[in-house]
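task queued by scheduler; priority normal; single chain, no ligands, no partner chains; default sampling; output format set to C-alpha cells
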Amino acid sequence: MRNWQMLFGGAAVGVMVLTGCASKTSPADQDQLTQVQEYTQRTEQSAQAAQMAAEKAAEAAERAEAAANKAATAAELAAQRATEATDAAGKSTQAFEMGQMK
C-alpha cells in the first residue's frame, strides 16, 4: 500500500507545482487543475479506506484462525475424554462380569 501512497503523494506534489504556475494558465486550465487535485484527494482517501478495510479483514482472519484452533483443541479433548470413558466402561463391564463369576 505504501506504493499507492507514494504515487498519490507524488501526484499531489505535481498538482501543487502546477497550481503554483496557475497564475499563467487560463481559467479552463485552472479548473482542470482543481479537478485533478480533487480527484487525487478522493483517490488517496479511497486508498486509505481500502487499506483500513484490508487491515480489518486481516484481523478478522486472525480471530477466525484462533477460533478454529480453539475448536480443534476442544475436539481433540472431547475425543480423548470419549476414549477414556470407553475404557472406563470396558473396565466396569469387566469388573461386573468378574463379580458375576464369583
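post-processing summary
- Residues 27-101 form the longest helix (75 residues).
- The chain has a mean pLDDT of 85.
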